[in-house]
Structure formats: C-alpha cells, structure tokens
Amino acid sequence: MSDTAKYAQYSTLSPALAVGDDEPDRNLALELVRVTEAAAIAGGHWVGFGDKNKADGAAVDAMRSLLSTVHFNGVVVIGEGEKDEAPMLYNGERVGDGSGPECDVAVDPIDGTRLTALGINNALAVLAVAERGTMFDPSAVFYMEKLVTGPEAADMVDLRLPVKQNLHLIAKAKGKKVNQINVMILDRDRHRPLVQEIRDAGARTRFLMDGDVAGAIAAAREGTDIDALMGIGGTPEGIVAACAIKSLGGVIQGRLWPTSDEEKQKALDAGHDLDRVLSTNDLVTSDNCYFAATGITDGDLLRGVRYHGGKVLTQSIVMRSKSGTIRVVDGEHQAHKWESYARLS
Question: Which UniProt keywords apply (predicted)?
C-alpha cells in the first residue's frame, strides 16, 4: 500500500476507531511540542553564556514540569540520569498526569549542551514517545556505532559493509556522484580513521561538534543536502532518532559500543549480542510513536529561540509514525505569561 493510500485509509477512521485507550493518540503531538518548547525556552536563556550545566538544569526542570501535565502514563526509559548524573528525568521515573495510555518516554532536554553554552548551531530540545515496552533497552551502554541514511538507500546499506561500499550504494540510490555525497560525523578523535575512509572513498564530511540527533534527522530528511550520518554517538540519541526516522522513512542502523569492561559486562549480562546490527525496528518496535524537537540554537533542522521585545519565538518539528505526518510549528509566546505558565520564573 502506498503512503498516500495508507494516510487516506487512516484519515477516514473515526477518532474512536483510529486509536485505542491503550495507545498514544494523535492529540498527543501538540502536547509534546509544548514540552520541547518549554525546555528550549528555558535552555535558550543560557545560550552563549558558557555554562552548559545551568543550561541543562534549566531545560530539565522545564521539561519535567510540562511533562507532568501530559495526558499519558509515561515511564522514562531513555533519560538524563545515569549518563549525566542528573537527579531528574532518570531512567524509570514516572512522567505524565498518570491517565491515558502507558508509554515509553525518551528525553533529551538539550541535545548539545556545549553547543548551547557556546552559542553554536544545532542544539535541540527533544522528546520521543512510543507504546509501553517498545523502546530498546541499551543496558547502560551509552554509545553505539551508527549509520543513518534516507529512504532511497534504506534497503541497500549495511553497517557491516566497508564504508566505501556503503557510500557508493548511497550515491547510486540517490543518483549522485560519490563526490557529491555529504556525510555528517561527530568531530571526535576516535573518528579520524573513519573520516579518512570517507574522504578516500571520494565523499565529503560535515562535522558536528556535539549532539547527533539533528544530524541523523537531516540525513533521513529530503532537502537538507545531508546524505548520511556515520560514526559513534550516544545510544539514547540513536533511539530518539529512530522514532523520527519511523515517520521520515530511511534507516538507522546501530551496533553497541561499550567504552569499558564494566559496560561490556552489563551488556552481556543483559543478553545483548555486541556484534548484532540493530535496525530502526529493533530500536523502536512500535509503529505508533512520536518525535518532537524545538530548536535552541539555529541549525540544519530548525531555527533557534529568538527574542523580540516581550515575545519569544520558537520553531519545532513534530512527527507521528502511524500516519507518517510531519509538522513544523512556529510558536510565538508572550514571555511573561509563558514563564509563569510553565513555572520557569
């Protein structure tokens, strides 16, 4: 069935039939945007001030506050806690108003805290929600090797193939020359050999200082001039991105990358095969999931928070995989009312 036919069939269902009481419904989308807007506005106050901890703390407080009003019974399965030693939005924390569907929740109040502190592009507030028990449990393995590309090459690439071969497959699928392929990659010393492989294959590199959610989405979304994301990045960010890619099409593939013997043992004790390549559907098994993000600083995906007199302007994106719907939301907020409402003052 084509995407058009799928949507037509979906949209003819009455609300009572389109969703059940036990699964997230389409009205959840705007509620999630309100949450990421709150986190972005709170974190946005700290853009360029050089203190990533204060920025992150403000965004966490705001996201947690607004999450408590959302109509669902959520459990944080990808949170701030263990990796960032945060006291809130930790794995296992209950969020939402306690009514409605049971959901897995993945949060990243600021994807790119250093970007925020330094006023550099591509910082986002992000949130993903799926039906309960459908998000991958990384068992405290905080990093994974990733490959992301759009729908054209989704069925052709394989993380186990040589980099050069994957790049040629992507180029062929997109009808490009290899030297026209742009690959996003985190700017890390560990990626020096990968950068050389990409360049030796004839492709171009585009570096991200921090946070690869925006890069993953750009690699899967049309019109961004980004053809792939490669390299080792956060496992939580990979699961969040998978929720978006469920709506966008394309693919994310990942392989767990423990950074210590302790992490490796945790993964093995949990039954993970560290050689296994995880696909989009492994990272999020539900076909009814949501992704929402609001820009904190300007970037490839969204504009950042802006101020005009007493107004705060935001730009967000929200996606729902069940209908394949993607919406870009421009928000205009009265600063004094918003801060009181969101309990940010």
Answer: Carbohydrate metabolism, Hydrolase, Manganese, Metal-binding
- 269 among the known binding-site residues? no
How far is Cα 139 from Cα 22, in angstroms, rounded to an integer? 26
Ligand-binding site membership of 188 (annotated) = yes
Confidence of residue 91 (pLDDT cuts 50, 70, 90): confident
Number of structural domains (the chain) is 2
Beta-bridged to residue 312, according to DSSP, are 307, 333
Q: Are residues 156 and 89 part of one domain?
A: no
pTM: 0.86
Is residue 84 a known part of a binding site? no
Tokens of 131: 């039906």
Any binding-site annotation on 79?
no
**21 CB neighbour count, 10 Å cutoff:** 8
pLDDT at 223: 86
The domain of 326 spans 22-133+288-341
Is 134 labeled as ligand-binding? no
261 marked among binding-site residues = no
**CB neighbours of residue 27 within 10 Å:** 11
pLDDT at 344 over 50: no
